[in-house]
Design goal:
single chain, 246 residues, alpha+beta, Translation Initiation Factor IF3, Alpha-Beta Plaits, six-stranded antiparallel beta sheet, four-stranded antiparallel beta sheet, 10 strands, 37% helix
Length: 246
């Protein structure tokens, strides 16, 4: 009888110890394993703007039997181009003439059967590139539309469509990041309020890629970021993804 009582007491002690141990372990686990409820939202920052820098590239060339003759001709063309640009109100500081490139020209020789039998030296072609980088967009655009005046003078002139840039992109990015973050926070607040909850601390923030597209265009966004240079009127946008505690 005494033995049975001892067994009962021992079993009770073991049971109490197990309960205490379970409580201690449970409390310890709760301290190190928090259960979070979070909300993730994406905000958008977007702004239309007008480019403030134009870059225009063109090339012209001359061909002659001797290098000296080709050089004389290209120098005369450079003078005419400089005069033309000055007359069109393009500032000297905005004009850059690159180093002249020299190409040796050859023509193919054929036999009576029409097969190539060799090459014959045909002269030199000198190629000159001119680059205009200006903040006077209107003057450059007007000039670019009147280069036929140079072609009429016998200059083999070839120009590209101008590229448009914005010199204050750094400030624009900061402005858009602020707008995107505010937009994301408002979205999080709206969702939390509708769920009868509140927005807590920010847990994580991820910035999306910076996109620049032409205004009112159908350009697709790129995973690496779009950077339109052909449109003068552009739209910049950026997204941020925020995660908050609830």
């Amino acid at each position: 009888m005494v033995l049975n009582k001892s067994k009962i007491i021992s079993s009770a002690i073991i049971g109490i110890a197990l309960v205490i141990t379970a409580c201690v372990l449970g409390k310890s686990w709760r301290k190190t394993h928090f259960s979070y409820q979070t909300i993730s939202v994406t905000g958008l920052g977007q702004k239309d703007f007008v480019s403030d820098l134009i870059v225009w590239n063109a090339v012209f060339s001359r061909t002659a039997k001797t290098l000296a003759d080709a050089n004389t001709l290209i120098k005369e063309d450079i003078k005419l181009v400089k005069y033309f640009l000055k007359k069109k109100n393009i500032a000297d500081a905005d004009i850059t003439f690159s180093t002249v490139k020299i190409n040796r020209d050859y023509k193919s020789l054929y036999n009576n059967e029409g097969n190539v039998t060799g090459n014959e030296f045909n002269g030199f072609t000198l190629i000159q590139e001119v680059i205009i980088e200006s903040k006077d967009l209107a003057a450059v655009e007007k000039m670019a539309g009147e280069i036929s005046d140079l072609i009429e003078k016998g200059i083999e002139f070839s120009a590209q469509e101008p590229d448009y840039y914005f010199t204050k992109l750094k400030d624009l990015k900061i402005e858009l990041l602020k707008a995107a973050t505010e937009d994301a926070f408002v979205r999080a607040q709206t969702m939390a309020e509708n769920a009868k909850s509140g927005v807590g601390n920010l847990k994580n923030a991820t910035m999306g890629v910076f996109q620049i597209t032409g205004q009112n265009s159908n350009e697709d966004y790129s995973w690496g970021g779009s950077f339109n240079t052909k449109a003068k009127d552009k739209t910049a946008s950026i997204t941020v993804k925020l995660e908050f505690d609830l």
